[in-house]
Specification:
Elements: E1 21-22, H1 23-41, H2 45-50, H3 72-77, E2 79-81, E3 87-90, H4 91-123, H5 125-136, E4 142-143
Parallel strand pairs: 1-4
Antiparallel strand pairs: 2-3
Helix pairs in contact: 1-4
Length: about 140
C-alpha cells in the first residue's frame, strides 16, 4: 500500500509582530560607526567613506599631509594623499597618531553606548515607545 503524504501545515510567524525597522539598533549602530571612524580617521562617517569618491575633491589629508584626517580611500591606497593626488607617506603613521589622541574618548563612547543600550531596556523606554507606535497603527513599520 502506498504511503500517505503528510498534510502541509501553514507556517506560522515566529515573532508576535511583523518585522519592523528597529530604531534603537539603527541609532546605536550608527553611533558605534561614528565612534570608530572618529577614533581611527578623525572624521565623521560620511566624509570618511565618501571622501575622495564620487567626484569629490575632498581628501582627509589634503594639503600635503598637513591634516590628521584619514579617509577610506587613503586606507585602501595605503598612504596619505597630498594635494596632487600622490601618496605622501604611509597611512599607518596618521592612524597611530589618531589612535594615540582619540583612543580614550573612543573607548569611553563605546562603554557609554553599551550602558545606554542596557538602560533603554531596563527603564522600559522601548516598551512604551512600541506601545505608542502600535496604538497609532505603525507597529509593523518601526519599533525600538
Amino acid at each position: 500500500m502506498a504511503r500517505r503524504r503528510a498534510s502541509r501545515r501553514k507556517k506560522q510567524s515566529r515573532s508576535k509582530y511583523k518585522t519592523a525597522f528597529n530604531l534603537k539598533n539603527a541609532g546605536l549602530s550608527y553611533l558605534t560607526l561614528a565612534t570608530m571612524t572618529q577614533t581611527i580617521g578623525n572624521l565623521a562617517p560620511i566624509p570618511f567613506f565618501l571622501g575622495g569618491f564620487a567626484g569629490s575633491n575632498y581628501f582627509g589629508s589634503a594639503g600635503a599631509g598637513a591634516s590628521d584626517k584619514i579617509t577610506l580611500i587613503e586606507i585602501l591606497k595605503g598612504g596619505t594623499i597630498g594635494t596632487g593626488g600622490a601618496l605622501v607617506r604611509p597611512v599607518m603613521d596618521d592612524i597611530k597618531v589618531n589612535l594615540r589622541n582619540n583612543a580614550g574618548k573612543g573607548v569611553a563612547m563605546l562603554v557609554g553606548l553599551k550602558v545606554a543600550d542596557k538602560l533603554i531596556g531596563k527603564l522600559g523606554v522601548s516598551r512604551a515607545f512600541n506601545k505608542t507606535v502600535r496604538s497609532v497603527g505603525m507597529g509593523s513599520l518601526v519599533k525600538m
